[in-house]
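Continuing the series of single-chain predictions for the mutant panel. This is the parent chain; the variants come on the following pages.
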Amino acid sequence: MLFNLLWRFAVIGFLLGGGVINFVFWKQDNEHKPERTQVLGRTLLGGFIGLVVFVIAGIVFYMSVPHHPVH
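Parent structure:
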């Protein structure tokens, strides 16, 4: 169950991280067009940062939910 939760958090974090970092550089990119490799590297970096953040958030979320309720 933990793996099932974490891989979903990881995918969402990777996509959001890549999107957010490109959104941050949007205005700068309009002023002068960056190289494709620069955009790809930036997207991967943002994606991996988002992946780490969301996996940690997933672990915290998993640990905060009661798994075996007391009867």
